[in-house]
Design a protein that fits this description.
The chain is elongated, with a radius of gyration of 19 Å. The chain has eight helices and twelve strands. The protein is an alpha/beta fold and about 220 residues long. The protein has two domains: about 110 residues, Rossmann fold (3-Layer(aba) Sandwich), CATH 3.40.50.2300; about 100 residues, Arc Repressor Mutant, subunit A. The strands form three sheets. It has a five-stranded parallel beta sheet with strand order 2-1-3-4-5, with helices on both faces. It starts with a strand and ends with a strand. The chain is about 40% helix and about 20% strand. A hairpin with a 2-residue loop joins strand 8 and strand 9.
């Protein structure tokens, strides 16, 4: 069953969309931008329905951040009637949009169109990069064929990096995606977790230095 992530802070709309779509799709829900961004990475949905007016992080910011690393179809819900604004959304990476109030049948039809346009992919529970293998179901990790055990946050960071190797993640982006909260006075917390993760991998790897820092920008897996 395909999965749809609904990022919408209006609980009535969330409930309505969930009720309509649940018979056909698996649903994940987020009520603010930061949680939406986090679930977009963790849940790996087949399609995202994204409201623009969100607390904590705007829909525009969520859209642009997702587009740095994913081509998942995104349908934007907006109360804005300005055509220039909607054109800008499409240019920023939205696949489609509907203005509120919207017709449910039309939304369902647009979802079907977007999902039909996507290439079919076989589901995989494992992420592999060079010497590192991670099982998303069992949470088993092997580096150079040796088992590695990680706490929750370090595991989540490694999943994110393995899903997008070579991509540079800003520290704020990495923190907000994994912790699901704003990056305020959290640099030390993030640096400690990154350092621990890097050391644990390097201790087992034949070719260490998988996680490198890009000065002034962020980190990436290479």
């Amino acid at each position: 069953m395909m999965k749809i992530l609904i990022v919408e802070d209006n609980r009535d709309i969330q409930a309505l969309l969930t009720e309509v779509l649940t018979p056909t799709y698996q649903i994940a829900s987020a009520f603010d931008g930061i949680t939406g961004l986090k679930l977009a990475t963790q849940e790996q949905p087949d399609l995202i329905i994204l409201d623009l007016m969100l607390p904590n992080l705007t829909g525009e910011s969520v859209l642009k951040t997702i587009r740095r690393s994913s081509t998942v179809p995104i349908i934007v819900l907006t109360a804005i009637q300005d055509k220039q604004k909607t054109v800008a959304l499409l240019q920023a990476g939205a696949n489609d949009y509907l203005t509120k109030p919207f017709d449910l049948d039309e939304l369902v039809a647009r979802i079907e169109v977007q999902l039909r346009a996507q290439p079919s992919q076989l589901p995989s529970n494992k992420l592999t990069f060079a010497e590192i293998t991670l099982d998303l179901i069992t949470h088993e990790i092997f580096v150079n064929n040796q088992p590695l055990t990680l706490p929750k946050k370090e595991f989540a960071m490694l999943v994110l990096l393995l899903r997008h190797p070579h991509q540079v993640f800003a520290k704020a982006q990495l923190y907000e995606t994994v912790w699901g909260e704003p990056y305020r006075d959290a640099e030390n917390t993030l640096n400690v977790h990154l350092s621990n993760l890097r050391v644990k991998i390097n201790e087992l790897a034949q070719q260490p230095q998988y996680i490198i820092s890009i000065w002034g920008i962020g980190v990436r897996l290479v």
